[in-house]
Amino acid sequence: MKPLTTRDKTIQDFGDQWTTYQANVGYYASVEFLKDILGPHYDAHFFMGKTVLDVGAGTGRIAAMLIASGVAKVVAIEPSKAFSVLKKNLEPHGDKVMAVQCRGDEISLKDMDTAVCIGVLHHIPEPGPVLDAIFNSLKPGGHFILWVYGYEGNQVYLRLANFLRVFTTRSPHWLLAGLSHGLGCLLTFYAHLCRWLPLPMNAYMKDVILKIHYRARVLVVYDQLNPAYAKYYKEKDIRSLLENHQFEIDELYHRHGYSWTLVARKPN
Question: Which of 72, 78, 168, 240 could be joined to 225 by an S-S link, Cβ 3.0–4.6 Å?
Answer without folding.
Answer: 168
